[in-house]
Amino acid sequence: MSPISLTRYLIEEQQAGRICADLRLLIEVVARACKSISIAVGKGDLGGVLGDAGTPGSASINVQGEAQKKLDVLSNEILLETNAWGGHLAACASEEMDHSQPIPDRYPKGNYLLVFDPLDGSSNIDVNVTVGTIFSVLRCPDGVSAPGDEHFLQPGTAQVAAGYAAYGSSTLLVLTVGHGTHVFTLDREIGSFILTRRDVRIPEETREFAANVSNQRHWEAPMQRYVDEMLAGKHGPRGKDYNMRWVASMVADVHRILTRGGIFIYPLDAKNRAQGGKLRLLYEANPMSLLVEQAGGAASTGRLRMLEVQPEKLHQRVPVFLGSKHEVEYAVALHRAHDANA
Ligand code: AHG
Ligand code: MN
Ligand code: MN
To answer: What is the 198 CA–ligand 1 centroid distance (Å)?
Structure first.
């Protein structure tokens, strides 16, 4: 059978009545932006894209209070520019911008909102480890002609599409439009994303976890206990030996989980408690949670199903537990038992 390109996959989804022409165009445009980002990432030092944005001694700081890398800024610009003129969007929001940005008046407007983490895994840019782009698509509420930040505050269940690109040993686009999670690999010679795994399924059981364990002493008690139990191995309460992996790029850690199972955890800790967690709900946790649920996995804050959290702020942060279903359910049960005894 001839390879199925992203274009063909999207046209067939449209013919089946599962997406409309505007959403097809939107996803094609995001994929094109990801190809440009992939080329910039791949040039590395030769393209002058490594290192901090801003001037020496005065790094540029984003709304998160984090120093921006040159590639954070460049990827944000690529996504904004490619998506501005197609007529499919009403507004964009990004990790790298304080507020959402409406489509400029000189261009036609569409009915969708796009929110993204332009470059995920910034700490890995300069050390040649996989980074990525995460995106989520929402509908612009009916009757809203000039959307602002408040119109992005929709629960994850309202997402009409979500995905990520991973810029690793190959460049991948992982996508859901609400009918399974599918992996496309960039054929660099042809310049097209080709469907390479249809309907990914995450095993329900796992023996692998992903966590930055250097923070363990700062976590809430149930999560300290959770990791202690896994580290105790087959003679401990879980009765099996666990392996650990932590890339520190969410795209890479989630991609491993979509490939062979596992649980990803980024709990509340003493350092991030005031902000509600480290990872951002609208452009990290929600799109990844939709992809994971569509692959048969589970995603939670530890206390709530992630996709049902009602956002209150554009850059809201949350604790994250996602991956193999039974493992996530166990982590949630530990939170419940802890809260019941509090
Ligand atoms: P970003 O580079 O977009 O700010 O996201 C980084 C995130 C996520 O990708 C990763 O899982 C986590 O931060 C890593 O955190 P630590 O450096 O605390 O391990
Ligand atoms: Mn990120
Ligand atoms: Mn980022």
So the answer is: 28
Q: Give the pLDDT means over successive 10-residue stretches in the chain (342 positions).
A: 94 98 98 98 92 81 86 96 96 97 95 98 95 98 95 98 98 98 97 98 98 96 96 97 98 98 96 94 98 98 98 98 98 96 86
Query: Which residues, in sequence order, are bridge partners of residue 59?
Result: 54
Instruction: Report the 10 Å Cβ neighbour count for 261.
Output: 20
Q: Where in the chain is the domain with CATH 3.40.190.80?
A: 208-341
- Alpha-carbon distance of 86 to 182, in angstroms, equals 25
Q: Span 6-197: which CATH code?
A: 3.30.540.10
Note the ligand closest to the C-alpha atom of 266: 1
Cβ of 130 closer than 6 Å to ligand 1, yes or no, is no
Measured from the Cα of 119, ligand 1's closest atom is 3
| 39 within ligand 1 shell (Cβ under 6 A) | no
Distance 251 CA to ligand 1 centre (A): 10
